[in-house]
Amino acid sequence: MSEPPPGSRVPFFDLTAQHAALRDELLAAMARVLDSSRFILGDEVEACERDVARAVGVAHAVGVSSGTDALLASLMALGVGPGDEVITTPLSFIATASAIARLGARPVFVDVEPDTLCLDPASARAAIGPATRAIVPVHLFGRCAALDAYLDAGVSIVEDAAQALGASLDGARAGSRGELGCFSFFPTKNVGALGDAGMVTTDDPELARKVRELRSQGQRERHHAARLGGNFRLDALQAAALRVKLPHLARWNDARRAHARAYRAHLDRAGIVTSLEAAGRGQGLALPDEGRGEHVFHQFVVRTSLRDELRAALSARGIGTEIYYPLPLHLHGAFASLGHRVGEFPNAEAAAREVLALPIYPELPGEALARVSDAVVEFFERR
Question: Disulfide engineering: 133 pairs with which of 3, 10, 84, 201, CB 3.0-4.6 Å?
């Protein structure tokens, strides 16, 4: 098959236009840090922390080195360790569960809701036992998971909000309802740094203090470790870049929502949109459930049992896609010791076979989005 012409390609994600528009501001921020010679923590990080705390609507934000380290430091601050159980979803990036296991605790997987693909609240509540120390729900793909069913259950809630900065549900923003919220600023996120960066949010001053200590080798003061910690500190260069980008969060999230509406309208008009059950039989395409609240569409994820064939057809047209996630966490070799088998979490396993993320970055041109939609429609019309 011949290669598609360069002008017809649609990358899955592209920061070129975003960084071109912000280039002068980003370079000025880098120069400011260079001139200060303060590259780890310091004023830039503190200012970034204040900006994120305001954006999330909490009293405290603590900058850390990545979203993974945000999860790890949060669980450490709660004292999670050997003998503890932490309930979470099997449909997420591996860091969600590996942070639990790295502390010697046991990840307890609970299936997801078939429509939202977020942790099923009733099942999570039912899984709480005497060893349960925390629940880690994931605000998947930019929509808030429902937390009400277990907020009063007497266990700590650590929100994995890595994909959901700016999302909200029932007036509460992602990262503001649990004891702790964890954010990633990996470059592909709704606000991305120029490398790895993360943030922990909380209204609890004591937890904020513990996370600040933990990110600096557990030191309460220089050369005095109050507890065992790690090197989870946020670089000033990343904080400075984030300070340039954070004011654009609302506009970028609005653009993502507009792209999602455009996809939905185009695919709806073509008559290929169907139910989850029918999509699971290859009879069309199921679109993401927006549900309640403000979805920020970190990803626009469609579903079909013909996922692999559809992805290949789009690739042949020069259209980039991704699969989040092709294997549920309970089936990863890293968690083989937990003894899980295929079939234990059918909703997560079905999603792993069917999900496909289409391009949806804020600067995605309208004609590129239409090209993607047309290619999806043509795939189904040819069958």
Answer: 84
